[in-house]
Amino acid sequence: MNDSFSPLSRRTFLNQSGLNLGALALGGLLSRESSAASALQKEISHFAPKAKRVIFLTQSGGPSQLELFDYKPGLKKWAGKELPDSIRQGQRLTTMTANQKQLILPGITQFQRHGESGATVSEWLPHTASIADELCFVKSMVTDQINHAPAMTKFLTGHQLPGRPSFGAWTSYGLGSSNRNLPDYLVLISKMKRPSDQPLYDHYWGSGFLPSQYQGVKLRNAKDPVLYLRDPEGLPRHLRRGMIDGIGELNRKRLDQSGDPEIETRIQQYEMAFRMQTSIPDLNDLSDEPESTFDLYGPDSRRPGSYAANCILARRLAERGVRFIQLFHPDWDHHSRLPSWCTARCRDTDQPSAALVRDLKLRGLLEDTLVIWGGEFGRGVAGQGKWDSPEAGRDHHPRCFTIWMAGGGVKPGTTFGATDEFSYNVAENPVHVQDLHATALHLLGMDHEKFSFRFQGLDYRLTGVEKSRIVQDILT
Amino acid sequence: MGIPFLILCSQSPGIAEEPVSFSRDILPILSDRCFHCHGPDPSHRKADLRLDLEEETKRTSDGVNILAPGSLENSELWYRIITDEEDDLMPPPDSHRKPLSESERDLIRRWIEDGAPWGNHWAFEKPERPELPSDATHPVDAFIQQRLAEENLAPSPPAPDHIQRRRLSFALTGLPPATTMTSEESDWNAIVNQLLDSPHHAERLAMWWLDAARYSDTDGYQGDRERTNWPWRDWVIDAFSRNLPFDQFTIEQFAGDLLPDATPEQILATCFHRNHMTNGEGGRHPEESRIDYVIDRVNTTGTVWLGLTLGCSQCHDHKFDPISQEDYYSLFAFFNQIDETGAAGTKAKPYLAYQSPFAQPAVEETEKWYIQSQVLSKEAKARASEKFEPWLTRIRAQLPKGYEAWKALRPSAMQSAEGTEFAAEADGTIQTAGPFPRQDDYRISYNDLGDLSRVAGWKLEVFPHESHTHGQLSRGEKGEFILTNVKLLISKRGESQVREIEMRGAIADAQLDVKGRNYGKVGDTLDDDPRNGWTTKLEETPEARVAIFELLEPLDLHPDETLTFVLLHRSTLGDANIGRFRISATDQRGETVRSLKPAPLEELASLTGEIPGDLKNRLIEQFLLDDEEYQAIRDNAVQAQRQLNEFRKAAGKLNVQVLGKRKEPRETHILERGVWDAKGELVKASVPGAVLPLPNSENLDRLDLAKWLVSPENPLTARVVANHLWQIVFGEGLVRTPEDFGLQGEAPTHPELLDWLAVELVENDWDIRHILRLLVTSETFRQSSDTSPELRERDPENRLLARAPRFRLPSWMIRDNALAASGLLNPMVGGPPVKPWQPEGVWKEIFMGGKTYVPSVGPAQYRRTVYAYWRRSSAPTFLFDSAQRRVCEVSTNRTNTPLHALTLMNDTTMLEASRVLAKQAVDSESPMQDLAKRVLSRKLETDEANVVLREQKKALDYYRSHPQEAARFTTIGQQSAPDSKEAAEVASWMTVASLLLNLDEAMTHE
């Protein structure tokens, strides 16, 4: 029995998409689903995977490490002074602040140490602070892009220009499917009212040159949670069933005549489509969740489309074996008014993110689910606007930022890497976004150097051509 | 199932019998396993050894022969690939290169033993016309059949006539054959010519070219601003209509502006190289963007004309192909002289102010639709107005004296997020007390809305109170309030989830008139942004304030539902939470919730005697808001008006992005590691010598580059183009990596045929139509695509073409096919982009409401997909696996997923086409076969007919007993509804039409 979301005959890919088999056994791929998937798995798996799935809590816009995690008490004495050139080292600025003096704005929040691990988390994230011992904070993240779209593209696809497969697409391609009623890679975007300054392009979860069934499927907060999922008005379920039966019977006759195995695949896909018409609404219907769930995730979780409600869905998807679950919460681009703007996004995300980690742990899912929280870059130590006004914000900063991870083979209760006293440069243990990719693939049981796909005559990897390293220190 | 003419041989002929060919057998191995460290790129070169050059490979190094022709034992290279010593073995096991296979080693062994003859990569040698086999009747068949004979295979018999017709028609026009065509076999050439001469042929080729050109109607990146480059799209269609020779087609797109006495159209052609994405993100350095655009042009040129992955040389010398980084930036230099700044949006000069001749017909078509919609709207208004007087009489009798449109609500629950305490008073007023948090959210719930059966809007009154600071509106330091956001939620008893109710707008009796994002305007409470919101100027004598919020759609209430209003006070400084307030609601739409004046019904209630004309008009307006039929017709008229305005604007002069030479030439540097501001050595404009050197290489410009590309001496372009044309007709190219003819690309399945076609193309003045005609008149094209298990096993990817290829049509063709089969297709050519049906909200969700997709009305809805509006951040959703148009794409991307199935089952275009097909079926004598003929170009066989009739009967039974469902099903789209007597019948055949359109056969080039 085929138990893949997209049992596309792999022959098609081989024919039409230039899949380089590399070390893959051709015979394995050409056979049907489960065996094909396991052949692929066997060939790219080099370690026993610690994680079977990923939940990526993408905070789009660049959350401020200075206000949230990277506690720099020494900065107080630098308040309003110019950032020393020895620290800036010619770092490029965006054209928004390039013509402005770089006057230091110390972090405006209070910090405390939390849990046994003593991690520093600011007052703006009390719920995250309360689970500090479950988390691994990486304070030495580095990227090389300073504008949103290129940086997010780099963060999620390994390359700054659009066109490469996303991290999620690589994962679903590599891991194959474990649920026959749902796609392997689902994307959930918080519903916000204000027009976003940073559109969330579908190439962030695209499949690039990988076959398109590995692309993320967006679960929309709309009448159609997946595009075209709903049957038209006036068409009852039993007639849809009949139509799919009819399509199947006539297609099978054509299959007998023509011998084209693509037809068999198509028959299966119509069946899968029919099943999705039930499985997706079931997934979205939270009426079977007890009140305690909503209490855990906070009041906003009752509002479908909110980040909090999406966190509940993420847990439900993890329970259903979906491989890659990616949430996007927009609007972290706080060029001004940190006390109102940044706190608003903290309130949206703090309790639900922490609840999700707790909930996964409670259900025994955390150990094989890798949770990643983070945005495409950090924010600079200089104030944007008048540094000493509550109106001040911060510009983009690629040289350091903080993310946290949990579960899936990551050491809990750790803080890894450190920045200099200005939270400007990484002082120890830099982790480039590509190192993050290499590490995550490693946790999923894949060797990032061997996991490649041939396109236009070249073997492409998520981690690209530069040397990337697995951050062994944070692994259990 | 057997294929009668197929001769299967018992063993596959290996390459063992043939002599080893360096370029075919050896070079690909060296390239794939060795060149990464021993190839053209010096930065990764190991042991100072390169194996891409003959003299370097056959030299002696420290007394060791790297490769000794004829002698295995004296060749270090041979030792290195067979040794068991892990430290010596090549490629090194830790390099992650695939180890050499037994047969690959064997090839290298035989090659060395044969004297290691050297040669060039096939694609860099100028193609010579190969001899045709003497008895050839058709050149294509000659080469294909010769190869089949070598493999002991035979071609398949001709495909059934209707399949040949469909295949031909899809390949050349992207549309199904007209049902009226005659079916005489002898007419094949005539049919071919007729199709090639049709404007639909040009549109079909344009779709190929638009994907390659990454054509789009928006910029991409942040903001994704609209652009008006569509006249270039029409230039492409027109060029294909005129069968403009491909060399001229190339020259005009590269350098139309540099031609003597260039016509506006020749300048327009250069938009090809402006179709890249442009980045208008705030904070972006324009020069960095400009460099990106130049790079995009180089890479696109490489992919489309040369079939080379030039992008690899952007950061370092190419690892496999003889393209150095200097070559790359020498090509870059051609495109570095454009008079552009790197800006996006409306500042992306150079522009050509161009008036398209193709817009006027679209204007006229929409004008007709507009006039008609006005008439319909007027009629509908008249019909609705007839109901007004009786309504007025009734309502007037019912209205109590002193009627008030707004009902003050009594809260059932009051909560705060940060600790504020509340006390409700008898009239619904709520007074705050207790702790005073800097910021707070109030959540006030109402489970009893009295006699209101719906809510159209709500009112927030803010009152002063003596307990407040200075007796003002808040207990905060200044006594002022700042309301940053409001939300309205509805929940049903017993359900844990709530629904958020959208609001259309807000007004207030007072607000601070601020600029930009700041605290003042009440409308700013409707976004999720805490940096703006509603506040008012404090008066010396404290005054109450009022705001009214209109719901997007009136909300019907049920008794077990609770409304919760959330008032957020999250301003930057805070300390400004509302002190005392009251919430009211109304069921009155229109003016009542859009103004602060008394509602029309309130005025009516206080009136005795004659109703003044002005009030009557206001009452009519309010009455009409609730007439759904009229509103729908009126919306259509409004949309027709909007569309007309849009098209009229498009018929004027538009700014089309084109190429233009900069007065001050820019210097071009090699960019280290491809980084935009890491300038290395200076280079001048030049072409890669390994492809074809240019003798006179001083002061070259784009025109020289274009002429070089289409020079008869250029080994690549004609092959690459011939391969594209082959791919259009046969689904896959002769080279299956159409974007890569380099060393890492695939070798052609039929090298001689490719060369023959390339030479034929050049010698026939680059006549594309001539080549296409050759391909589709071959027996190879016309043979059956049916296959047997044996043949599939033997040649699973159909590289030998012992059968015709069978592949799914591109998604755009599936849509066009449905429109054509149903007769909905609007055959107009050219003009401003149109908007086919897409699900609601597809743009909104990307831009969080910043942009809205509104489908076209009238005949504009049924234009071919080539005219569909292309937003880069949200490509048309019905094109499930198309090119993305972000960067140039020339290879096919065909997948088979449940999402396709859902799209084809539920897309409005597919359903509307089904509906029109069903109506035609009902009107015909033999509904089922009529449908089959239109959709599949054939009649159904008995067993098939039984299946179809079974489902049709099931549907008919259902719809006869559910007439309302039949009515809903048969009104999808914008066509007028079928007669109610006929609806069940039409609905039942509509399920059949949809079923047939979803058959594999209907969406496949068979």
Secondary-structure blueprint of this entry?
The complex is a heterodimer of chains A (476) and B (1006).
Chain A: H1 10-16, H2 26-30, H3 33-44, E1 53-59, H4 65-68, H5 85-88, E2 111-114, E3 119-122, H6 126-130, E4 135-142, H7 148-157, H8 167-175, E5 185-189, E6 217-219, H9 237-258, H10 261-284, H11 291-297, H12 307-319, E7 324-329, H13 338-362, E8 369-374, E9 378-384, E10 393-397, E11 401-406, E12 414-416, E13 418-419, E14 426-428, E15 431-432, H14 433-443, E16 452-455, E17 458-461
Parallel strand pairs in A: 1-7, 1-8, 4-12, 4-15, 5-6, 5-7
Antiparallel strand pairs in A: 2-3, 4-11, 8-11, 9-10, 13-14, 16-17
Helix pairs in contact in A: 9-10, 12-13
Chain B: H1 22-33, H2 35-38, H3 54-57, E1 60-61, E2 64-65, H4 76-82, H5 102-113, H6 139-150, H7 161-173, H8 188-197, H9 199-212, H10 230-241, H11 246-255, H12 264-269, H13 286-306, H14 325-335, E3 351-355, H15 359-386, H16 388-398, E4 407-408, E5 413-416, E6 421-424, E7 430-433, E8 440-446, E9 454-462, E10 485-492, E11 498-500, E12 503-508, E13 519-520, E14 533-534, E15 545-556, E16 561-569, E17 580-586, H17 591-594, H18 600-605, H19 613-625, H20 628-650, E18 653-657, E19 668-671, E20 679-683, H21 702-709, H22 717-730, H23 751-763, H24 768-776, H25 779-782, H26 789-794, E21 807-808, H27 811-822, H28 844-847, H29 898-906, H30 908-923, H31 927-936, H32 942-961, H33 963-969, H34 983-997, E22 1004-1005
Parallel strand pairs in B: 13-14
Antiparallel strand pairs in B: 1-2, 3-18, 4-17, 5-8, 6-7, 7-17, 8-16, 9-15, 9-17, 10-11, 10-16, 12-15, 19-20, 21-22
Helix pairs in contact in B: 1-5, 9-10, 11-21, 13-14, 15-20, 22-23, 22-24, 27-30, 30-31, 30-34, 31-34, 32-34, 33-34
